[in-house]
UniProtKB/TrEMBL annotation:
Pathway: Purine metabolism; IMP biosynthesis via de novo pathway; N(2)-formyl-N(1)-(5-phospho-D-ribosyl)glycinamide from N(1)-(5-phospho-D-ribosyl)glycinamide (10-formyl THF route): step 1/1. The keyword Phosphoprotein does not apply. PANTHER family: PHOSPHORIBOSYLGLYCINAMIDE FORMYLTRANSFERASE. The record marks D144 as: Raises pKa of active site His. It comes from Paenibacillus septentrionalis. This is Phosphoribosylglycinamide formyltransferase. InterPro entries: Formyl_transf_N, Formyl_transf_N_sf, GART.
Length: 199
């Protein structure tokens, strides 16, 4: 399976995927990192991992669709079969969603459908839930709304802060995301309408 990872920030999920590939635990090739923030730490991580990066500034383009067309061309050139969103903080339009329907996944730091959108961990703390979690899902046209592939629960404990919850969530993400990609690479994941079946 040939994958591209899209990220905007730290890239701890990118790193976990690259490390799993390096360790022989994940049988995919990372063809491309796509990043919209030239200063993001994930760019240096890709360089260290020997992964080609397409780094762009959205302001250099007339529209979202314009840079997405360029990204789409690169994905096609590299024959990417799965797009992995890992902290990519931009809305994705139908330019990419349609050609990669059923072939684009996202990881979100909450138990969806609770707390979609930005600052999911802060939203969960503010609401006062006792359990939050991590969701990996296919991407459709909506906000964090596509068919759910896997979820893991994370307890919120007395005295927790955004930072302490985030640390536990990130540890769970870094285990779950490579695992889900491996299931997809092994052909174990299929979509039946709203439902994802894993054999
Ligand atoms: C993760 O918490 C992920 O769930 C969210 O953005 C964060 C990215 O973290 N979508 P990192 O850049 O992979 O460290």
């Amino acid at each position: 399976l040939r994958i591209a990872v899209f990220a905007s920030g730290n890239g701890s999920n990118f790193q976990a995927i690259a490390d799993a590939v390096q360790a022989g635990k994940l049988d995919v090739s990372i063809e491309l990192l796509v990043c919209d923030k030239p200063q993001a730490p994930v760019v240096a991580r890709a360089e260290r991992a020997g992964v080609e990066a397409f780094v762009f500034k959205p302001k250099d383009y007339a529209s979202r669709e314009a840079y997405e067309q360029e990204i789409l061309q690169k994905l096609r050139d590299k024959q990417v079969d799965l797009v992995v969103l890992a902290g990519y903080m931009r809305i994705i339009t139908s330019v990419l969603v349609e050609p990669y329907e059923g072939k684009m996944i996202n990881i979100h730091p909450s138990m969806l459908p609770s707390f979609p959108g930005v600052n999911a961990i802060g939203q969960a703390l503010q609401y006062g839930v006792k359990v939050t979690g991590v969701t990996v899902h296919f991407v459709d046209g909506g906000l964090d709304s596509g068919p759910i592939i896997a979820q893991r629960a994370v307890d919120i404990l007395p005295g927790d802060t955004e930072e302490s919850v985030a640390a536990r969530i990130h540890a769970v993400e870094q285990e779950l995301y490579p695992q889900v990609i491996e299931w997809i690479a092994a052909g174990k994941v299929s979509i039946e309408g709203r439902h994802v079946v894993i054999d």
